[in-house]
Batch of 4 targets.
Target 1
Amino acid sequence: MTAFRVQVLTLGEVSARNARFRAIEPPVSRDDFERAELAGRGTALFFWHEANEGAPLGGFSWLCPGCGSWHYGQIGERPVSGWDEPRWVNSGTPERPTLTPSLGCRLWRDGECIGHWWLRDGEMVQA
């Protein structure tokens, strides 16, 4: 079973990574950049979004360790699975999240990635 420790980033760390990505010459795809970073780092990336009008409890972004693509999720008052309007609940801490339901990347849905994960106590474990 594949597992990755989650590295929770601050907004400043996300901004610095984005600047580093945009400065690469010749340009590379975002997924290629993320796969290369993941190989060197060995951790899955995750960051929290502030609450706003569209997501009053906030949201999160996570990097699929299987394919290197970023995904967004919304926090809700109760977990809602499915692909149309899922909501996750964090029963862990902001530094070591535990999310329900599981996380599935769009390429996993199409059978092109291993990206179906449980996020438990700051670790992504393949579902």
Target 2
Amino acid sequence: MTERSTVEILRAARERIADPERWCQGYYAQDPNGAEVEPDDVQACKWCAVGSLCLEVQSRDEAHLYLVDAAREVGITPTAINDGRGHSAVMVLFDRAMQLAEASS
């Protein structure tokens, strides 16, 4: 099995929530009824930025750190961007995290 790069991990997490219908705020993940579930729950159909990334990695690894670094550039956390600034800001956050990861490789 080939190990994925940090950029590939970030890209997969971003793609999962690229459709606003598959993205949520306030919870790591939601089921079809809007109830909170764990990101890896079989009923999960919507994820926040961090919840989506949790499906790709099992710990706060390098990919998560790039997401945090990208958020710090605007002085807040990934969760604050997700829950306070909306879907398009989350997409920009992932794009910036991928840029930072690519620049350091």
Target 3
Amino acid sequence: MTDASVRRVTPGDWRRIRELRLEALRDPMAHVAFLESVAQAEARPDEEWRNRTAAHAEGDRSAQFLAETDNTLIGSVTVIVRAAGAPDYFDRVPDVDLPTVVGVYVSPVARGRGVIDTLLAAAAEWAEQSGYQQLTLDVHERNATAIRAYERAGFEVQSEIVTESGRELGMVKQFVARGRG
């Protein structure tokens, strides 16, 4: 497995999260994995980074998890809760909120060490402990490495949609039926 520790963000992590996000956006697969450019991320004011980090640290509508080794951030995953009725392409019970994994990134220096597995486990644990029955994510069909990691973590392809950049796969990890939905 990995030698990295995984934890939920704290409000004070915002600068380090910003730097990790910029690293992620410079990654060669960023164009199919993220909906933002380096320039857009760099243009965000510090206050926006602080607010987003605080919301992911303390709220019950999102959570961000960081992988760290030797005081260096090497990966991140965020779960946001899509409100009932929000547009998506998952088959779900109407009027049920849906936790969704976004912003998955592992630094190249840490790839192949199980960091993604540990991050996805933390995201799934948060969603399940929050009372949800499933966790979803979207992934581009050309991101084969990510798809394999998601399948290893128990996600299955449930749907697909064709976008301007190709096919996006909707993947779902089911939990034991209990809780909110």
Target 4
Amino acid sequence: MMSNPHAPGADSPPPTITMPRLDDDTVVQILEFLHRIMDLFEDRYGDQIRRFHEDLGGPGDINDLDDPPF
């Protein structure tokens, strides 16, 4: 069995990603792109994601994860 190099107590720290400086317009364009990708992903796989969470006994709607239970 292979060990997880990012597990607590691993010998080396996880790799870091250096983010470049970007102008405001570029940052907003990238953010909108990422939101669109997430929307497409949820449209395609949302039923599977809900089933997974329901099987774990959690909320069925992935948007309910931040909502209080009452």
